[in-house]
Amino acid sequence: MSDLPRKAMTRTARLAALPLGIAGRATLGLGKRIGGRSAEAVTAELQQATADQLFKVLGELKGGAMKFGQVLSVFEAALPEEVAGPYRAALTKLQDAAPPMPAARVHAALAERMGKDWRANFRSFDDRPAAAASIGQVHKAVWQDGRTVAVKVQYPGAGEALLSDLGQLSRVAWLVGPLIPGLDIKPLISELRERVTEELDYALEAEAQQVHADEFATDPDIVVPAVVAQADQVLVTEWLDGTPLAEVISGGSQIERDRAGQLLARFLFAGPARTGLLHADPHPGNFRLLKNDGPAENWRLGVLDFGTVDRLPGGLPRPIGDSLRMALAGDAVGVLEMLRAEGFVKPTIELDPDAVLDYLRPIIEPAAVEHFHFTRAWMRAQAARIADPRSPASNLGKQLNLPPDYLLIHRVTLSTIGVLCQLGAQAPFRAEMLDWLPGFAELD
User: Fold this and answer.
1) How far are the Cα atoms of 122, 131, 140, 275, 359 from residue 238, in angstroms, in the given order?
2) Phi then psi for 178, rounded to 5 degrees?
3) 0.85 exceeded by the pTM?
4) Got the DSSP string for 412-427?
5) What's the pLDDT tens digit per position in 306-341?
6) CA distance 73 to 69
């Protein structure tokens, strides 16, 4: 791959080819069924081929296309099992890898952004990318003071690609929408588009990462690599070893899954409370489980990539904790009043308080018990309940509104729940909310 495809027409053509290719394979599949192949076998074959094509294109285009794929990957747990199988591997590939930018292009980018003598900053620099993501790739190196570092280099043309892709993806959102019940794809793409300009700014990312690194510097549970240097579209941070969360999901022990899940939930709630920032890209590629020879309670969670954050000076909004506490106490009227005050229920909409509480109870189950076991089956059940047009939950859900101030918080929460379900984690999640979620504890 010689460069990130930048021209809008080229990228649009690749994305536009997706529905045509899928339609063509569906026609081919119909012919195979007529020829005697079983519907199940042909359907499975089509699902696998569709996944391969969809995520091959997204991965090669990088930019917004790959970012979209990464966001979708955390919702994989909501897919029906008969569909999830062929899609799971293709989705997971997007979390940590993409076709790399050649070394010559990396060197040119470093010379442009750090100066022609950029190598003087390093004792050594590995030309092989350690990871490739939606707008840049990471190289392992040794800084001039001997520290092992991660060097993130933004792809040339990434900004154009991001904005172009996210505009075009909204036109083919229907391809993915039906696969994940209850997930409205177009608002997700719109929200991503609003955030891309921040993610392209490595100075903002360096600032957000260093705030976290300082806050968690002596923390026994959470590790955030410190920023070493930043120059234009290059970001150098301390290197972080550990087991990628994607590997824990694919083959980790239950002990590993439970500890990773507990720490992920802790970071979701503690991060905003302690830093005033919400890490807004919680896909598995951004987390590492740092194990040692001691007991699991001493293992830590490493957190990477602060390109997208939500600024919450007071931590997560107190109405979230207040309404959650009232819902668990059965205060249906109080919950509805809180939702209306925060803009989740528009003034012209009349709802039955008890129906609202019935809608929420299954969703807030993890906050109701001391230990909760997140599973793919549980997430599929929630998605199906909300998506089924015959369900009271579906009809009520359509009358609710998502205020702009809560849009990113909502996506991050759903994404984190998706990762917890992929992990199959069982842990005391309620305790994390009691410790860190404003308004949830009665004496808070």
Assistant:
1) 13, 15, 10, 20, 45
2) -65, -20
3) no
4) HHHHHHHHHHHHT-EE
5) 988 999 998 999 999 999 999 999 999 999 999 999
6) 6
